[in-house]
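User: quick one, fold this
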Amino acid sequence: MKKIYFLVLIFFISCSKEKEQDIPVNLYNNSTVINIKNPDGKFKLSKIIKNIKYIQLDESLEGAIGEVAKIKVINDKIYILDEYSAKSLFCFDINGKFLFKIGRHGSGPGELINPKDFDVDDYRIEILDNHKQSFLIYDLEGNFIKEMHFNFAVHSYTKLDNIYLLSPGYQVWGYGYNYHLFIADENIKIKEKYFKIEKELENLDYFGEYQLFKSRNTILYKDTWDNYIYSFAKEKLYPKYKLDFENYNFDFDEIKKNKNKLAPYLFRTKVVGEIFNICDLKKYLYFSYIIENRKYDMFFDKKSNLSYSGLVENDIDGFPLYSSLCIYKDKIYGIINPMAIVNAAATKNYVYKTKKLVDYAKSINETSNYLIGIYTLIE
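Assistant:
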């Protein structure tokens, strides 16, 4: 009985150190408002991009990627997470040469069951396995070092220095189910929690795949239930951008009244649902968004306050655009499925069917790996 009491006391003391944080109202008034006037329109890529360079990833069997979940380029190395097919993290050099793969499957030390997210710094690679409820730590050559366990739900994460930002995502089981975002220390001990889920929205499975984004040593967060993009700086979260899609804004109050309307509301109504691929470049804020289950893109010029939004037409070389992307040295690195290139070249009424596109499509075979597009922006 004494042992049980002692454990309960430890748990109580631990939880009492976690602070529920409310963002001051005045900070919302200081955020930059971005008006997106034509969310389902079109714009040409040449308005934003100066040139595009392509890198073919190594076609070795060990480096063959099934389905891309996430890409990062760090210190001239390309890291790609295949969450669903290979369930592995692949590493290539900046020219596309395969270096190594982390993907031994199992429940033992260093083995993966369900790799969900990852991060890399100057010293190590970290992979989040949300089935094992662990961060698996490796050196920069892919050698296993240790595992760090936690006892709550984490769907995606990122870190800045030794501070972790953790999102439970749509998997709201276990400890902390009623908050959207946690701030934790280097030992994965939660210190702060943000965005408590309102009673009307409990157990509603509507969350983005990834809600945390890091570019240029800045962490951005998009909460599911408002139209703000938040920035994490000086160990605090503050609203940086307010997104206004005018008639396409998500009606949060309507969903609170009737949760059963969510699916038809998202997929059969012209409203902006998920917002993702958020990148804060020097000149632009970029993100993708969904309307009626279709992907659109937005570039906001911070100097002129002009926004370019809608379906992007690649009038530069006709290649399909990236499915997943990251920022490196203020350029966009996007990953392109080779079959998307074949399909574009085979489409009769495809407007931008360039010779470069057709010739590249002819070179693609069943062993072709993904392509990396490097997009240099107009300054």
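User: anything notable?
Assistant: Residues 1-16, 171-176 have pLDDT under 50 and may be disordered.
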